[in-house]
Amino acid sequence: MNTKIIAWITGALTLLLALFSFILSFNALADLAARHSVSLPPLFPLVVEAGVVIFSLNALYRSLHGESARWQWGLIIGSSLLAGLFNILHAEIDLVSRAIAAMPSLFLLLSFETFLGQVKHAVKRSNLVKSVAELLAELNITRTELDHLIAIKQVELDTLTQQADHLYTAVEQSQATLDQLHRAIEQAKTAQSSSLEQAKAVKAKHDALAMEQRRNQLLTILTSEGDIGASAFADRLHTSRGTVYSDLKALSATGQITKNGNGWEVAG
Questions:
Q1: 104-116 confidence digits (pLDDT tens)
Q2: Is-contact 40 116, C-beta < 8 A?
Q3: With 225 labelled, which of 8, 12, 97, 209 sits at a CA distance of 20 to 30 A?
C-alpha cells in the first residue's frame, strides 16, 4: 500500500479519536459547569479543551522553526491535567468511574499530539523533498556550467593542439633548413679545401718553375760574366741575397758550380 494512503488513513483515524474524546470530555465538562451555575456551560469545555489544541499548535509552530517549545508543553500538560481533573470531579466517586472519566481528556491529548507529530513529520519530509529538489536543481545548474566550462576548455585545448602542431611543423622545417645549411657548409668547406690544395699545388709548381728558371739564369750569368757578387745577382734576378745564397748552395750541392779563390764558377 502507498505510504501516502497509510498516512492519510492514520491521520483521519487520529482526528476521529480526538473528536470522539473531545465530545465525551465536552459533555462531561458542560454538565459540570451547569451543575455549578456557570452562565454559559458549553463555553467552559471549549475554553479548557481548546487550550490543549491552541498550545499544541503553538508548540508545533515553534518546533518547526527550530525554537524551544518548553513553555508551550507546560501549558499543554497543565491544560490536559485540568481537563482530566474536571472530568474526574464530574464522575461518580468509585475508582472505575473516575478512571473512565479521565480517559477522554487523556486520549484527546494523546490523539491530538499524535496527529501533530504526523503533521510535523510530513512538513519536515516536505521540506526535505524541497531541499532535495533545490539541491538537484543546483546540481543541474552546476552540471550545465561545468559542461559549458568543459566545452570552452576543449576548444582551448584544440586550439593549443593546433598551435602545437604548427609549431612542430615549423620546427621540422627549421631543422630541415639547418640540415641543408649544414650540408652546404660542409660542401663549401670541402670545395674550399680542394681549392686550397689546388692553389698550394699550383703555387708549389710555380715556385719550382721560378726557382729552376732563377737558378738557370744564375748559371748563365756565372758562365758569361763570372761571380759578380751576391748583391749584383740579387738585383739581376730580382730576388733577395738570402735566396741567392740558397740557390748557390743548392747548385754547389748538385755539383753544377764550385767555389775557387775568386768566388763561384761553373763546374768544368
A1: 666 666 766 776 6
A2: no
A3: 209
